[in-house]
């Protein structure tokens, strides 16, 4: 029986719960995200303070554990200001559009094995709200809807800097979702399904982080860019955009944007755990020596532990790496991540096709190594010819050279000169002996300038 049939058989376990049990599981998913967000905010402030040799929050609750709850209450009590030039309807709906899709992806994430049912109020059920044959496509679609809230927030504010922040977020998310989708496709090829429960079942022998390390690394980079976290927090860069797309928001609407960011952090973390880190499965040393590690309520413990570890990685990156420039961000997405992910996807598809033809593993390694060497050789030859062409072009006069001085204000806006163009000389201060007499106060015109009341 192949993996697709197993996935279809497992999906028959879903959709049989009574309505009240579905409601309980939905409330649990919502509560899990909210509690994880509260813990994540406190953990971020504590960990960053520890990295910077500070104390961090220590006033609200024991060891400051209720600081994030106090921040939420404070934001709700702040004055809710609506910008006069804003599009009122879109301005109010934008935070809702950004926050609601962030909660929807958790519905198809398995917290435990589908075949190991648990008992809730005497009713046997799975540790997952529901599952779909195209569950991963559902997650990608829901995650893509959240970008509309950010773009609409920047546009509806009626201000320049929020609009720039919204456009940055749109370009950034589109760029990084392409590489993310290619990383997902490698997992689909190995698991034979897009169902989240089937993908976890396919990692019974070996986690995909071992089989597909390049896909895991690509996804780790793209998930940081997808949620606009440092060092890729371009849409919220305070230095050049004042505050980003949420500049004109306050009170509960600003809190919803903040909530959406942290919920998206949790969402991409649970997706990473499901696709690459074995999902709810116990780590190798535990699962090898304890047969009951993946039964009962224990799978939820392993799942939550992996999610917390990835959230700590988010905090670690924020406290360690400085913000990159926007051109570096887009160059990484389009010139590095997308080509590498596409090439890696082709290699994975080739390996799977050879395995389906019963080709020996050694032969597959030789074929893949030969393909990689050919690609590297072609890249080296292309770089060599490109450098030679650039060197020959450097010996020739460039366009714009020798055309005289360059006027940076010719088009009405200051622009930098092109290669070969020269700026007009900057006026310098004259030597002290050649400076003109600077007169301050009334002068005696009758004396023909010989006697003045001014000073040098």
Automatic annotation (TrEMBL):
Residues 391-456 are annotated as: Disordered. It is an enzyme of class 7 (translocase). Its main location: membrane. The chain crosses the membrane at residues 20-43, 89-112, 132-155, 176-200, 206-225, 262-280, 300-320, 332-352, 364-382. NCBIfam families: PRK06076.1-2, PRK06076.1-4. NDH-1 shuttles electrons from NADH, via FMN and iron-sulfur (Fe-S) centers, to quinones in the respiratory chain. The immediate electron acceptor for the enzyme in this species is believed to be ubiquinone. Couples the redox reaction to proton translocation (for every two electrons transferred, four hydrogen ions are translocated across the cytoplasmic membrane), and thus conserves the redox energy in a proton gradient. This subunit may bind ubiquinone. HAMAP family: NDH1_NuoH (MF_01350). This is NADH-quinone oxidoreductase subunit H. It comes from Streptomyces thermolilacinus SPC6.
